[in-house]
Amino acid sequence: MRRTIDWDEDAVVIIDQCALPGAFSTLRLRTVDELIDAIRRLAVRGAPALGAAGALGTAMSALRHGADHAAVEADAKRLAEARPTAVNLSWGVRRALAKLPEGGQAVLVEAKAVLDEDETANRQASARAAEAILDRCARRPLRLLTHCNAGRLATVGWGTALGVVWHLHTAGHVEYVFADETRPLLQGARLTAWELAQAGVPYRVLPDSAAATAMARGLIDCVVVGADRIAANGDVANKIGTYPLALAAARHGLPFFVVAPESTVDRTLPGGEHIVIEERSAAEVTEFGGRRVAPDDAAVFNPAFDVTPADLITAVVTDQGILPLA
Ligand code: MRU
Q1: How many whole angstroms from its chain centre is CA 108?
Q2: Domain at 123-323: CATH architecture
Q3: What is the DSSP letter of 276?
Q4: Distance CA 317, CA 322 (A)
Q5: Closest atom of ligand 1 relative to the 226 alpha carbon
Q6: Interface ipTM above 0.85
Q7: Which of 163, 175, 188, 284 could form a disulfide with 141 if both were Cys (CB 3.0 to 4.6 A apart)?
Q8: Is residue 187 annotated as involved in ligand binding?
Q9: Where are the domains of the chain?
């Protein structure tokens, strides 16, 4: 499969995740404004893919503005702030921007390196997590539950939590995957289910609110999710609905694994309470499929992410190792 995000001649090319699963199409983004719009609309999304977007967007600006470093720095700031929670976005921007004194081509070379390293890091992290899960769970084949989309589409390639599924499935260790639909934007139902179907992995989509019932009925052996930002103490910000999943897993004695590249770890933050959580528009909740479902004057609470405390997490696994959790 092609990369989720890549550089082609003078543009950033992304798989349009707003069009999936109905259509597999790409978008060619030629300006920083177009890229920022795609990030905000979640046409490109998922923490590692956002890291790549930040780096490539900075390169696009550096190539366009030449010696006007102030203009590039202004673009870089706007890119980094397009979505606040996934630390990879500002990390990717910073990494590319550091090469600005060497010129636009050097910035592009660095951005391309971010893309190349992403797939390698995610393969390593997910292979390590697959081993840890096999050590921890006796049952074969395994019945896994995941939330949101932490697959190829959330990264440049391969995936994190779904990367674990690819490793385990190849080894014949997966009976099925339960994919939370992931309200309100349905990354699980639209994207994870699509990826699992493409890979021939048996799966079931379930409402987020049915996950605890699936656990209570003994249908799940292990939960595995990705992350948007991991604080120094191992608290994890991930898609809204991850925290209740961890609570339910703890209640049922099920292991709860988080898998991410090292670029998702933010050691500048001592704990999860410092992570900025993106609030998204009310319409994502009051409308469904373009149709209004809540009263006109309904007030809305729509945080895009939540924070799972480290003490509910069995292990945070990255390409560098397994984080010691307090
Ligand atoms: O709002 P999104 O779709 O960008 O949220 C994505 C997630 O929460 C993913 O679980 C996370 O980025 C990990 S992706 C490997």
Answers
A1: 23
A2: 3-Layer(aba) Sandwich (3.40)
A3: P
A4: 5
A5: 13
A6: yes
A7: 175
A8: yes
A9: 5-118, 123-323
